[in-house]
Amino acid sequence: MNARPTKLDHLAVACSNLAEGTAWVEAQLGVRLQPGGQHARYGTHNTLLGLADGLYFEVIAKDPDAIPEAGHAWFGLDDFAGPPRLANWICQTDDIAQAVAKAPPEVGAPRALTRADLAWHITVPDDGSLPYQGAFPTLIEWAKGTYHPADRLPDSGCRLVQFQVLHPQAEAISQMLDLADDRVRLTKGAFAMKATFETPGGIRTLA
């Protein structure tokens, strides 16, 4: 069976407080984010930014008023500390079962989730952690017929130029991920993530 490639779906900044994380991204990129929503299963909430080329961006934090139905958060938020930072990347596939079969076991099983009229399957480890510190992406498959969040977000005037992931096991990660996206660079090195954007105010970088 031919492997079906994945592509970048969206990027996520993690933070301890959603308002603070949103303000940080707005200051870095010079644009305003939009209200997002709540994720009852994992007790989180987010704000969103539409990007060019069918991408979007989210700032996500634990919701202090929510008790996660799963008993834990996701995106590594239970162990998050420090200032807001780029923490996760999410890759889209049209066959999540096949993508998971090739992925490391740490990626977790696909979970069926819904929010309003959105429906999707997404990989979440049993403890809500991030595989390879976040260097291996979360995998997502949007339900057939559902809209993509980027389709309803207003144009922010921002476009992702490049997303770089550094990790000591970058080569192994690449082999476990059928990625077909020229915007993404997986490079061997100490773990780090950096996203470069073209914005109305010029080139800006988040890390």
TrEMBL record:
List, alphabetically, the SUPFAM superfamilies matched: Glyoxalase/Bleomycin resistance protein/Dihydroxybiphenyl dioxygenase (SSF54593)
Q: What organism is this sequence from?
A: Yoonia maricola
Gene3D superfamilies reported in the protein's UniProt record: 2,3-Dihydroxybiphenyl 1,2-Dioxygenase, domain 1
Task: Give the transmembrane ranges.
Answer: none
Domain named Glyoxalase-like is located at: 8-177
- Report which superkingdom the organism of origin falls in: Bacteria
Protein's recorded name: Glyoxalase-like protein
